[in-house]
Amino acid sequence: MSFQAYMDNIEAKTGRTPDALQAMAIDKGLADAGGLAPGVKAGAVIDWLKADFDLGHGHAMAIVAWIKGKRA
Asked: For residue 56, with 0-12 CB atoms within 10 Å meaning exposed, 13-18 middle and 19 or more buried, which class applies?
């Protein structure tokens, strides 16, 4: 599955774009403009996405990659 396919599936499942999920992570203090917030591990973001949006591990990791700047 391509990275874009992951992003499309995430948006279909959550009703939110990757940018919207990144903004939510920033609001929660899990991320900042440069990526993950200082001291925050990927697991914290994954746990949040699994709990609040029922995303699987792979899809949650794709959002972590998005937050870190991956776009393709």
From this structure: middle
